[in-house]
Amino acid sequence: MKGKVTIQAIADYTGLSKFAVSRGLSGKSGVSPQTRESILKAAAQLGYFKELPHASESTELNDLNTRNWSGTVLVLFPNIRYQNTESLYWGPIINGISTRLDQKGINILTLTEPKDDSVFSLLNPEAIMGIITVGSISTSILLEIKRLGIPVMMVDHYDPAFKSDSIFADNISSIREITTAAIRKGYRNFQFVGNIKDAPSFYERYMSFRATLEDHDIELKQIPELIGPEIDSFHEKFPIAIRQHGLPEAFICINDIQVASCFFQFDQMKIPLSERPVCSGFDNTHPDLPIWATVNIDKELLGKRAVDQLLWRILNPKTSYEKILIQAEVIFKD
Hints:
The protein is of the alpha/beta class. It has helices spanning 7-14, 18-26, 33-46, 61-66, 90-104, 139-148, 171-184, 200-215, 234-245, 256-268, 299-315, and strands spanning 72-77, 107-112, 130-134, 152-155, 165-169, 190-193, 250-253, 278-280, 293-296, 323-326, 329-332.
């Protein structure tokens, strides 16, 4: 239904009087519980509760800062052990989301990704103004969210089956800078390490790594076991792969956690320090490790900007979806 949904429209739809509809919507006496229930259902179907403030595509950022917001945003976490508030990477992002929502006077409701979509039947879509997903959420859950028609902002994730705004660190530029620096140091034998199918960001990092080598006419002889799902059993696959193919000059790892796993395996395999390859990481979560290079992301800013974009989307529901990139800082630790 176009335009504002009026009490008269609900009355026409239900066949009740405007008086009855008004009393039913306000929760006042004068209508039976059954009648009030039918009024509320009709109002919901007509979109009465989802009247959002509309704005043109030229909405200024100041509108977001000066508007008095109220309501609740659902923050949805994946059902993955390491993606939580205690994580060195995800924790600051979640803190940024919480901080910005608090600044706007908006309530936050957190939920771990359910095993099925039944939990969404318990949520009142009219009470949720928007959803922020943090990390990898399954396609089935995303499609259930789509059915609810609630604006969504995705942090560090993309799914071709679900179109929405998203925000990432600039994976491509950061890995290109690291790989180029390694080439300038004289390295020519590389291996990428990490499950590139585990997250869109990981795949972007790998593709940037490959493209940089190609730009410098360096052949990549990638060991498949180091970038596929097999990497999940890293402690078993890594020694076998290294004994079979030998050590490269440099490991470009998917993140700092992966570097830490490599270091542990070097120790287990008793590889002398002088023979170990240099290792680069991502996320700057292990500053005490002797990582040659890593990437520092303003993780709280990722969370805050996710909230800003969600609020902008609420005001601009019909504009094209956006992918926001936050530039990161490459740190070299020679």
